[in-house]
Amino acid sequence: MNGILVLAGTPIGDISDAPPRLAQELAGADVVAAEDTRRLRRLTQALGVQIGGRVVSYFEGNEAARTPELVEALVGGARVVLVTDAGMPSVSDPGYRLVAAAVEKDIKVTAVPGPSAVLTALALSGLPVDRFCFEGFLPRKAGERLSRLREVAEERRTLVYFEAPHRLDDTLAAMAEVFGAERRAAVCRELTKTYEEVRRGPLAELAAWAAEGVRGEISVVVEGAPEKAELLDAAELVRRVQVREEAGERRKEAIAVVAAEAGIPKREVFDAVVAAKNAARAGASQAP
Q1: Cα–Cα distance between 160 and 187 in angstroms, integer?
Q2: Contact 286, 280 (CB under 8 A)
């Protein structure tokens, strides 16, 4: 008979949040696959658990090579417990590849539900929770990051991201550029830990705060795009920007306000203004 694959959730911070079944599963596993075996050792010591089975590492660097080995153990009847450093395996952590391989072999997959940084951040954000989507980590390169953000610029659901602390300021600045400086968001830091902090505010304000330096595990929750109040063509967008410029506003601020009023990304208004400017230049150069 085939064995069983158990995806075991682990605490995202406070060790007392460990689900009661976690200790039982770790103690009774034939194989424990851990993202970091050193963290697993600290976890079992804190829980007072003695692992009787074999412990192997299973992380991004060896996931592809180790998956067949674990599937072979499962086919042989082993109970394999998969744990990652924090939260649920396969959610922005190793696990998906093994689950897919196990399902293909008709091996039972179950879970020990545990803490989730995604749901915890969402619940604490103060933003709508009735509909949301999880976007994981954004690309590290600035251009790719902007492209990914533009793909969801009109997404109405609340967005949840993970981010590294040293990239947080750049990410929030990019979000402010694409989603709008006034779009509401929440930065959730060190959830369930001693220095837990939830910082709420407009994206531009959060970006300025993060520029001073932020530490810890980070989740970012961003309000979904507002419903478009009206559909404006490019000519009307340009006209509204010109009216504001003539009133003394800087072009950058005028574009931001018009974009917010229209419920569209600033990039759309900026592109319309640039296109109109280029068209005017082309017309002037062709004039006799």
Answers
A1: 10
A2: no
Buried b / exposed e along 273-288 (16+ C-beta atoms within 10 A)? beebeeeeeeeeeeee
pLDDT attached to residue 262: 79
| Extended strands (E) in 164-236 | 184-189, 197-202, 218-222
Which run of H or E residues covers position 124? helix 117-125
Whether the pLDDT of residue 228 is over 80: the answer is no
CA distance 251 to 245: 6
Residue 288: predicted pLDDT: 57
What is the C-alpha separation between 143 and 24, in angstroms, rounded?
46
Q: What is the pTM of this model?
A: 0.77
Asked if pLDDT for residue 73 goes beyond 60, the answer is yes
Q: Looking at this protein, which amino acid is placed at residue 216?
A: G
Q: How confident is the model at residue 281 (pLDDT cuts 50, 70, 90)?
A: confident
CA distance 162 to 119: 12
Burial class, 35, CB count within 10 angstroms (exposed 0-12 / middle 13-18 / buried 19+)? buried
Share of the chain above pLDDT 90, in %: 83
Query: How many residues in total does the chain contain?
Result: 288
Distant-in-sequence contacts of 16-22, Cβ < 8 A, 24+ apart: 17/114, 17/115, 17/192, 18/43, 18/47, 18/114, 19/112, 19/113, 19/114, 21/112, 22/47, 22/112, 22/114
Q: How many CB atoms lie within 10 A of CB 41?
A: 13
Task: In whole angstroms, give the CA distance from residue 48 to residue 26.
Answer: 11
CB burial class (10 A; 0-12, 13-18, 19+) of residue 182?
middle
Residue among 3, 14, 10 at smallest CA distance from 36: 10
Categorize the per-residue pLDDT at 78 as very low, low, confident or very high, splitting at 50, 70 and 90: very high
